[in-house]
Design a protein that fits this description.
Elements lengths: L7 E5 L15 H11 L3 E3 L12 H15 L4 E5 L5 H14 L3 E4 L10 H15 L4 E5 L10 H11 L3 E6 L4 H11 L4 E4 L5 H7 L3 E4 L6 H12 L3 H21 L3 H7 L20 H25 L4
Parallel strand pairs: 1-2, 1-8, 2-3, 3-4, 4-5, 5-6, 6-7, 7-8
Helix pairs in contact: 2-3, 3-4, 4-5, 6-7, 8-9, 9-10, 9-11
């Protein structure tokens, strides 16, 4: 296994589909080549970006298997085994272990949600057993999955009860909470920030790794934000982040749903991942082209502002 990086960008991958909504694995090889060329060191396959709630267990396993075959040992692969049915989650965990993925993320069940940390840990135990030596990450996304169990309650109890838990994909806007968590657990867990539009806030909170969908096509732009921040040029980092946040806002506003616009943006890097699957509505080609044009305008304006103002710390 490859160690999941603790610094940099991890691309949450889209699931390629044809016009009828059937998954197609053919684009994955060129998709992986594109990511490798941009410097991405890891991928998370079959998460929210990959439309996992709309895929069958067999489709999720097949898609992950193809990514495993394509990337080999080139970069780390995080698979995703969240499911409302424990039996299906265990089935995926076994398959991913056999594929020798590098980590697996699991969210709390999103219909009958666990009422306590101990209940969720009991749910995770058979999954962990099926994973064998594969590390586990908790996929925390409260905008989609709400539970009476707090994140601190879970992580506190998991320190002893779930030693296989390596980290958290923190997909939430509360960067102050993220910073407190990083300080509280002091290296016990890795924290990967999952809100691209607030990437800079995650860096300020101390999250050195980020997982997101826009890192598929905005890799160099987010790399520039990090470079400016680490050089101490907060003003420049903020200006660059503002342009990216405005671009993400445009995707949300100009698409029937964020996923359809995000997936369409892959065409700008030469990878056609097709439409989203129902119940999500696909963006029309006309609307998609207008979106691409709008984002090009936003990023050009952002770059002009940086150059024109000679932004410094």
């Amino acid at each position: 296994m490859i160690e999941v990086p603790t610094r940099g960008l991890i691309a949450a991958t889209f699931t390629p589909m044809n016009d009828s909504g059937t998954i197609t694995l053919d684009p994955i090889e060129s998709y992986a080549e594109h990511l490798s060329a941009t410097g991405i060191e890891a991928v998370m396959v079959g998460g929210t970006t990959g439309e996992f709630p709309s895929l069958s267990t067999e489709e999720r396993i097949a898609t992950t298997r193809r990514w495993r075959q394509v990337v080999g040992s080139e970069f780390a692969l995080i698979a995703h085994a969240s499911h409302t049915c424990l039996e299906k989650a265990v089935e995926m965990a076994k398959a991913y272990s056999q594929m020798q993925v590098d980590a697996v993320a699991v969210a709390a069940p999103y219909f009958f949600t666990p009422a306590s940390a101990s209940q969720f840990i009991a749910f995770l135990k058979p999954i962990v057993e099926a994973l064998g030596e594969v590390p586990l990450y908790y996929y925390y996304i409260p905008s989609m999955i709400q539970s009476p169990m707090t994140l601190v309650q879970f992580l506190d109890e998991a320190c002893d009860a779930l030693p296989e838990l390596k980290g958290v994909k923190y997909t939430h806007y509360d960067a102050e909470e993220l910073g407190r968590l990083i300080r509280r657990y002091d290296g016990r867990y890795d924290f990967a920030f999952g809100r691209d539009e607030n990437f800079l806030d995650g860096l300020k909170a101390g999250a050195n790794i980020a997982i997101g969908s826009t890192y598929n096509f905005f890799t160099s732009e987010f790399g520039a934000v990090r470079e400016a921040y680490e050089a101490g040029n907060i003003a420049l980092a903020s200006t660059l982040q503002a342009g990216l946040t405005e671009s993400i806002d445009a995707i949300i506003e100009m698409s029937p749903n964020p996923m359809s616009g995000l997936k369409y943006m892959m065409k700008t890097v030469g990878i056609d991942c097709g439409p989203v699957r129902l119940p999500l509505a696909a963006i029309t080609p006309k609307a998609g082209d207008a979106l691409v044009e709008k984002i090009a305008e936003i990023l050009a304006r952002s770059k002009k502002c940086v150059v024109g103002a000679d932004v410094v710390a």
